[in-house]
Amino acid sequence: MNKFNDIFDSRYKQGKALFGNEPMPLVVEAIKTLKKDGKVLDLGVGDGRNAIYLLKNGFNVTGVDMSKEGLENLKEKAGNYQDKLTLINSNVLDLELTDKFDMIIGIGLLHFLEYSDIQKLMDWVQNHTESGGINIFVAKMMQNMRNNLPYIFEAGVLESFYTVPEWEIIQYEEEHRASIMARKK
Questions:
Q1: Ranges under pLDDT 70 in the chain
Q2: pTM for the whole thing?
Q3: pLDDT (tens digit, 9 = 90+) per residue, 5-54?
Q4: Angle, to 10 degrees, between the axis of helix 68-78 and the axis of helix 2-13?
Q5: What gap in Å lies between CA 133 and CA 183, rounded to an integer?
Q6: 8-state DSSP, 60
Q7: By C-alpha distance, which of 104, 43, 109, 51 is closest to 82?
Q8: Distance of CA 150 to the CA centre of its chain
Q9: Could you tell me the domains of the chain?
C-alpha cells in the first residue's frame, strides 16, 4: 500500500480536495440515527470530506490515513473542531485502538488492500463497532485505468461480510462500486 501513499501525498500537497468537499450520501443518512456526540472512526480519511461533515454535526472523529499530507490538510480544514478530531498517521492494518465506535466508515479504501487483509480488517471493524453502531464501506467493482489496484470487488463480496446474524444490512448497492450501510444488532 506504500506505493499509493506516495501518490496520495503528492496529490494532497497540491492543496485540492481530491474527492470533493461534500460528504457521501450514506454518511448523511447514517447520522440521523446516531447520538450527536458519538464516536466515529474514518478509515482512509484522506483530507476529510466526511470527517468535516461529521465534526460539524457534533461527532467525535478519529481519522486514520497513511497520507501525512492528507491529514495535514484535514487538520487545517477542521479549524475550531480540532478538539473533537484525533488523527492517526498509520496503515489501517496496523491500528492498535481498543475503543469501540458508534460508526466506522471506509470510503474508497478496501480496493487498496489485498483480499486477505480486507478479511482481517472487516473482522477488526466489526469487533470495534458498538452494539447499534453503523458501518459504511464503499469499494470499486471495476479496475481503474492504471490496472494497479490489489483487489476489485465482485458481486456480493462486500455484502457477504454483513450477512451474519449480528448485523442488519440497511442499504446495499452494486454498480461500478459496491456500497453498504449496516447496523450491528
A1: 1-13, 15-21, 143-147
A2: 0.90
A3: 565 555 556 766 666 568 999 999 999 999 989 999 999 998 889 999 99
A4: 40
A5: 6
A6: E
A7: 51
A8: 17
A9: 2-184 (3.40.50.150)
